[in-house]
Amino acid sequence: MKLILNEEELYLKETAKNFAENSTPVNHFRSLRDNDDPQLWSEDIWKEMVALGWSSILIPEEYGGSDFGLTGICAILQECGKTLAPSPLFATGVLGAYALTHFGNDAQKSEYLPKIASGDITTAVAVDESNHHNPSLTETSAVQDGENFILNGKKTLVVDGASADIIIVLARTSGNPGENTGLTMFLVDKKDLEIKKLSMADSRNYANIYLDNVTVSKNNILGDIEAGGDSMDSLLDVGRIAMAAEMLGSTEAAFETTLNYLKERKQFGVEIGSFQALQHRAAQMFCEIELTKSAVMGATKGADENSNDLQRLASLSKSIAGDTFHLVSNESVQMHGGIGVTDEYDIGFYLKRARVCEQIFGSSNFHKERYANLSGF
């Protein structure tokens, strides 16, 4: 496994870098937040991303995609993470596209994948039901009623759930909470759900979703019935890797912003970057970022090469990316001093984003324990 980008992937990364810097700088994110934008991403910007082919990277060519692989879209997410570029790319271009490509039947693929590729619909994945990530604890029920299923329950912290057209809901068709068996994934239209926008510190699009006797046709089962636990694990691992890539980009931007501040800010007549104590802390951050790059690249390449070790690679990348983002965002604010926690400076946005992203699809502690269990410890 070569931990480098090929020529096509480098082109994608450079294109994304230019787009993020010119079309979605941090001020774009700030503007959406300040104007209380209901979905917290721009339709026009999303159309531009779709025109660049980003929404279709994981979709097979026969359905209008490029089938370019996870490494390609993660290179884009890394660059978007640097400017906190708001879009449904993660929830739709990664989660929705992967889920339907790998678990959808022919009819579902034909119905939804071309619409994702063209930007006509967006998706979200509703899995968690509490503040702690653990899909096996799913209590949301799906009871069969003839040709339909009746769903009841609640889902929390659904990324892009406040604006998604189609929600992939994990529900229990048999068994008890704590069991990874008896789980099934359903495709549910937003019009059938009660969706409440969730305000989080990082001003991203999240929602809590409530299901009250929601009727879903058996034709909307995604994958095999009662095989949703394993399917969701696979989907979440891809999401964890993609989130790690986005977090890496945000970490790099926070570090670069802080380095520039250390070179510009003067105290006692000299740049504060000349103080050895701050140099040591900056060097530590640099080392952790380099390790994170390797972990994320290893995971994306592992996914594209169908590695048998993907579960461990996903947990490793998400855990390391979370820890590094936490460290760098903390240190960055500290090195900026009091100005770092003011809304005037961008650096505080990265601290807030770190705190929320750490929890999405499993915290660092969750993945350390999972990695240990998968390794036989």
From TrEMBL:
Cofactor: FAD
CDD domains given in the database record: ACAD
Domain Acyl-CoA oxidase/dehydrogenase middle: 138-198
One matching Pfam family: Acyl-CoA_dh_1
Residue ranges annotated for the Acyl-CoA dehydrogenase/oxidase C-terminal domain, each copy included: 230-370
Domain of life: Bacteria
Domain Acyl-CoA dehydrogenase/oxidase N-terminal: 6-120
Keywords: FAD, Flavoprotein, Oxidoreductase
Record GO terms (molecular function): acyl-CoA dehydrogenase activity; flavin adenine dinucleotide binding
Family: Belongs to the acyl-CoA dehydrogenase family.
The protein, known as: Acyl-CoA dehydrogenase domain protein
